[in-house]
Amino acid sequence: MTVAYAICSVSDIPNRRGRGFELVRVVDGAEKPWPIFVVRWDKQVFAYVNRCPHNNVNLDWETNQFFEPGTKNIVCGKHGSLFELASGKCFDGPCVGKDLEPVSVCVLDGDICVVGVELAELPDEDDEEAARSASPPSP
Ligand code: FES
């Protein structure tokens, strides 16, 4: 049976903006941190693991800033690698030749849902905000 995990409403992410989530995935019975981000572009949503293939850090060095300003490219805030929105393929910067890891999502009744994986209990939004503000990315 496929389980869809609702992580937020589509309306929680403004058009042409993104949002990061600190999820916990269950792999072979063990719980593992699974940071992802979701970006909206008009009626489409895309999601990737929030790890830059260059240095394995979060892409959003400023919280929830995933787009290169004025474009539809995803940017890594550390060294500026640029990724295609729809494919996650890097086309400029230190990551050229590497891709973001895609996350399967769908929209059900206005909610953005993660599918194809097993998640541990979802944190409530207050816990998630506290966790993000308590652990900024390290240089
Ligand atoms: S860590 Fe992302 S481009 Fe270097």
From TrEMBL:
PROSITE patterns: RIESKE (PS51296). GO terms for molecular function: 2 iron, 2 sulfur cluster binding; metal ion binding. InterPro entries: Rieske_2Fe-2S, Rieske_2Fe-2S_sf. Residues 5-114 form the Rieske domain. The keyword Cell membrane does not apply. It comes from the Bacteria. Keywords: 2Fe-2S, Iron, Iron-sulfur, Metal-binding. It holds the Pfam family Rieske. This is Rieske (2Fe-2S) iron-sulfur domain protein.
